[in-house]
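Appendix B, record 7
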Amino acid sequence: HAAPAHQPMVAETMACAECHRDHRGADARLSRPPDSNCTNCHGNLDAHRPAGGAIAAHVSGFDLTHHPEFAALRQGAVDPGHLKFNHALHLASGLTLEPGGRPFTPQRLAKTARSRYASPSAGVDAPIQLDCRHCHELETGVKGVGSGAYMMPISYERHCADCHPLGFEPERPERQVTHGQSPALVVEELRGLYAQAALGANEQLLKRYIPDRPLPGRPVDADGRTAGAAIDAKLNTALRRLFGADPGEGGKQAGCLECHEVASAPEQPPRSIADYAALRLAPSDIPAVWFRHARFDHSAHRAAACIDCHTAATAGGSRSNKDILLPDMASCTACHAPSRISGNGPRGGVDHSCTECHAYHGRAHSETGRGVDSVVATPLSAR
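Structure tokens (predicted):
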């Protein structure tokens, strides 16, 4: 039963049988030792480790008094992601930018996308009403994690492209650039497209001899100059539309910069092709797993609605991507606590032991995978 050691402790080595004790009845589970096995050390962790450390020093139970707030939600914490998103806007009926604004309907989408957003009873002219399931989808059949435990990453192609296409010519919406490229590569993709179009319109450009340098006293070829200027003009117009570097109607930011944060840019809004190519967008950095030292299974909570726990993610709630919308300790202890009677009837009664969320082995390595489960399930030879 080889297993990784627990977090290093000073002058302490625990035998397996100190926690995994057998002959305790048919209902006993060797992998679920009593909380005292954990709190004997974690109740005063500083006495069992070198000075300091990231793990809370005093944890003696799962309640608001004996367990700290989750690290991701402690005071001052912000979402580390750099993808701008407004939950309140996307969960409002019609996704209107302002009261009384023009609602967004499936009729404004490509025909292939309408069925996904149209209400079966209202049709394609009714305002779109998004809910959590339109963007957040459970994983299925992921080895080592379990079916439905974690949410799949958000994908532009699957979750964003229908409403936020990457078109650059209003008269030809089917023409779109490739998502996921740097601005410099987008510039090159568009330049190649317009150069190809210019050559298709005037095949004689391919047949002309181009000297290494202009001959003294001879003018620059007028057709070549005109073709190059036309390509640059179309390219600049397309980039302005695509990146939305200038605020659009009503001062609203649009295009790529409506969602992506800029890591470095010229002091002034980009105007020239070189300015767009020099843009550097910040990486999205959306966490795949928030509770890095604990496990969570969404499928085990399928009886609850998303907003029962993610209360801030409602139509009138979060408007900034910096808001952290995770359930807090108070939300979890409403169920994971001893049974009790409150003003709303029976509460609690769900397992609230340490091993319900935490694993002993491999804790030090959990940040390399999806919570502790992926580490425990990974063979030692693969680590």
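Remarks on this record: Residues 319 and 366 are 31 Å apart (CA to CA). The radius of gyration is 29 Å.
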